[in-house]
Amino acid sequence: MDITIAVDAMGCDMGPVAAVEGAVGALSDGRFGGKITKILLVGRQAEINAHLAKTPHDSGRLEVVDADEVIHVDESPTAAIKTKKNSSIVVGLNLVKQGRAAAFVSAGSTGAVLTGATTIIGRIKGIKRPALGVLLPNSNGGHTFLTDAGANVEVKPEFLLQFAQMGSVYMESVLDVKNPRIGLINVGAEREKGTSVAKASHELLEASQLNFLGNVEARDIPYGTVDVAVCDGFVGNIILKYTEGYAKGLFATLKTELISKFLSRFGALLSRGAFKRMRKRYDYTEVGGAPFIGLNGLVVKAHGSSNAKAMKNSIGQCVKFIEGGVVGKIAAMSSEKLDERDEKNGI
Amino acid sequence: MDITIAVDAMGCDMGPVAAVEGAVGALSDGRFGGKITKILLVGRQAEINAHLAKTPHDSGRLEVVDADEVIHVDESPTAAIKTKKNSSIVVGLNLVKQGRAAAFVSAGSTGAVLTGATTIIGRIKGIKRPALGVLLPNSNGGHTFLTDAGANVEVKPEFLLQFAQMGSVYMESVLDVKNPRIGLINVGAEREKGTSVAKASHELLEASQLNFLGNVEARDIPYGTVDVAVCDGFVGNIILKYTEGYAKGLFATLKTELISKFLSRFGALLSRGAFKRMRKRYDYTEVGGAPFIGLNGLVVKAHGSSNAKAMKNSIGQCVKFIEGGVVGKIAAMSSEKLDERDEKNGI
Q1: Which of A69, A171, A306, B154 pairs as cysteine with A107 (C-beta 3.0–4.6 A)?
Q2: pTM metric for this prediction
């Protein structure tokens, strides 16, 4: 299987070094490196080469694709995608469109990546809205796939149904979860809870073939009660950002408390292995980025503050996605639904 | 100042013992006990008296008000409030309506308490929708007031403006925060972010007299960037429930990690003081319940799983609210706005 991955070298807050070192690291990573045919580093050639010169790498499997423009986070996504044809994001997405790469990983402007992906790569036929998904660690030792994590702030019930279907395919194909449990994020378990969109979505999900457990509360994400937690992109983005901030706040408070007294400080020193394992479990750089599902190709949005490890894991994450054939499975599922609808309509 | 507080003795999951012991404890608590004139324990007289008989108390300041019906969490709130006229919730709310109590504290069905409060006590003139508010601990050592925390799942921009105004009064009067900083929970800082309701709310808040910092992200709550975080009740409830679950999940994982190795276990033993202080800071039983603001009286919704300490703190919380004259201040603010509108309309 030819797995070529395009990587945006200009998207990370800390500059090209994170993407370049991440790409080099990915190629030699024991977990997935052997399966990657080639990585295409997209961005300002001279800058990328300067970093590559400092990093020993397999030059036969690493190619630089020049793109001399950069889209900044404060630019209007739509305008930037239209005008900056030679930006790393537009060039990278075109590599996927042209079939030269199976995936594009970017830590750049979320808006530009999403807008560009939808415009350039395009939606799978029958998919109304692509969605972002993120894997959040739960206390069962596993992960819960939260979708939509921020692509669609306003939704219709049919969108949520598709997010659930795509999330189910993702968890089955990428994380090997059999018959993934789906929950609809709501303000209570009862079917009549929530907004009118939530109520209508509950009905659609219940009538579907999915392993739908019903409404769940936000606490079911960290508890790991469900494998896929479905919500609109407004709520999803809030949960995602809150997770980041809350963990940081909690660890900061714990640190302050631990160093405030001698005995605690000494105790913390002895427990540092446990804290390290804990941090690792809750560290987003371990998981990789957020796949944007529902497109005719894979686009992974990595965190803007990604370091080399986060970029490496975001690249690695693509391997299972591609091997699992997620795009093809979603397309098959979607065309089945289209056929069913056509049958109903007597076409 | 006469401060009489009515307490729902039947609302706690663990039965009347939590409310009874909480009330007894509140009357003798050094922080606020001396300011409470009387507590009215509302519920099944015989059951309450049986618990009171076992708990030494100041009988001159503790009165039982009989209410032999109980509203359960699985009942339809509207139907229950209409038919169970002799339930502890309806009787307790009537005590506030009749002016016999300045506040009602209940750990019972959220839906029934909210529906009952709006129907029986009623809204302050000019307030379109009362809202729930909760104090969430932040890493600055303070608290952020999240409102609406679950009363209104669907909102209009004018509701959110009022939530912000009421939250500002609350933080100023109850927590002595000067010129509280207000943030609108959104998916990004830019004014054009979010749903159509979010955009219109941003405009209204910006045009107001409030100390509005603009859109904030959910992580600003644990960071303590704002004093009042405004959102609809759907998002607010999700943040609230997520906070609960996430903290529980995080502590559970940490515990597992800490006891997994001898050295960590020994270290944790030495650091237990720090963990205790940490837990205390993040413990909801320390803060009390969620005030339901915008009514002609104070109603506090305590957590269903409240123990005696949580009930005591929920009762104590009412003292500062009443002393701070929150209801009067919201009414004054609201009538000012009404006057302004009348002026505009040339009335």
Answers
A1: A306
A2: 0.87
